[in-house]
Amino acid sequence: MFETLGSLTASPWIYVVVAVSVVLDVFLPVLPSGVLVITAAAAAAAAGAAGPVPVAVPAQVPDILALLVIATTSSVLGDMAAFRLARRGGARLDRAIARSRRLTRAHERLGTALARGGGALVVIARFAPAGRSVVSLGAGKTHRKVTEFLPWSVLAGMAWAGYSVALGYFGTQWLGAPWLGTAVSVMALFAAGALAVFVIRRPAPATAPAA
Questions:
Q1: Using CA atoms, how far apart are residues 136 and 26, in angstroms rounded to an integer?
Q2: pTM for this prediction
Q3: Please, what is the end-to-end C-alpha distance for the chain in angstroms?
């Protein structure tokens, strides 16, 4: 898998593939958009990776700043597409979500927690599996204002893209080999997702009864 992704990062099409994957994974959470971003960032760092063994670097490598901007922008665009669709979807969208076992379980587990946590949980849920879908579709279904949702979506996209790019880029620089940096970075991304799920599902603190 890493070899296939590595060959893709040597092509300028990597920007298009990353953008499409990040936009669409709000509807298809199984898409490996985070892995794509990390792999592209690792390729960008390979030219400067330090290590005792020389690293083969493709002739073309992604620009790290362009990758960060594209990943962030695509994340926000995907969020807003789901948000708009949910506002207009009505019963048809409810039936579509009901047909997805993963989205149904995510709505059941995260819906109450997200409502309780407000904007900060929009950022945390961006790292959780299917959390982005629950937040964006849920905000649209409950007819939240765009001005309430968009700033948190931007912040969530920046946090997720920055974390993913930093993992791939600095992981490769520190470890010296793109494949090793990518593998370790992907594990760190999954760990962040597991932590996000734990934070979201943590029960709310009980309020003390009034005297």
A1: 8
A2: 0.78
A3: 61
